[in-house]
Amino acid sequence: MSGNGALKVISGDSHVMEPNDMWEKTIFKKWGDLTPRPVPEYNGKAGNFFYSGAQTLIMGRSDESAKKIGMQAAGWDPAVRLQFQEQAHVAGEMMNATRMLLIMQHPHQGVLRDCASVFNDWLADYCAHDPKRLFGVAMIPMGDVDWAIREVERVVKKGLRVADVPLTAPADGPPYRDKVYDKFWARCQEMQLPVQLHSITGRIPDPLHFHTRDEQETAPGVLLDLLYEAMGEVANEFIFGKILDRFPTLKFILSEFEISWLPTYMWRLDQMQESFAARLPLPKLERRASEYVKTRFWHGMVDDGLADKAIPHIGIDRIIWGSDFPHIRSIGLDAQSRVAKMFEKFPPADRAKLVGGNAVQAYNLAN
Description:
The protein is of the alpha/beta class.
């Protein structure tokens, strides 16, 4: 697959498209109207909608890329997905959720746990079709830490490779810096299980699914808040909250936030730690704040137009390219030509890391 001069491409961020009725079929009898499911109308308007528990989603937009190449079924049929990989000359993909990403904002933790278990089982079956090319990312709600530990232990046995936790801790619970979560981080570290923070799983709604004019008029600002939601969480909880100091070998991945914001972000972190230290009640860290960004996180990107300028500030070993396939802005059958163009300024050894080698390291795919 990497012959004839082609790069060995492994997408560090691809997606499945879960069957819309998956949760209705499995947990509706238990949870009733709290269950995420298709709904035929919203606010008096007929249409194709999906109730996630936090928003009512406008369906039919997120798989436009797959429709264009006639491979929409690649989202739910692993055999079709492997056909896509062969045609795109992609050696493997990290398989993330689509509907379940937004369900992670569900306010009811019991419903959320059941939704995650249903999804994790379905994804494990999907990836079992070819576990050397389909790598599953489990969804792990954090409202009950003991349950979260049991779930990661369960899904690892089923072949899933990563624990994706919500970007923010539950609204009715303590923040991630609280030591109540430490036994979860400790168990993931012990299992050498990477922890991923993916966009859209925090508390900011997805403005692509706003309905009213008032909502839509706020969409630009909300979308920016959504795309940069990781900034505050990483600083407050993982760096200055000292999670990274307490768990020095635990791997963290920031997925689908792009990377060109990181150089300025690192400068601001150091400014807080050094110039503002007399006025900010910050804990003493074991290293310079920006070093955590460069050494403790891997950073996912799809098509960041300033990537070549940002990468030297972050480090070539910490960047993971992902196609985002089959979502609306994704890279599909043209993966080889797109990544070759995107990273043409880098020497071959660095290109190999960016388009697959770093994903192997971050996600333990060599094991």
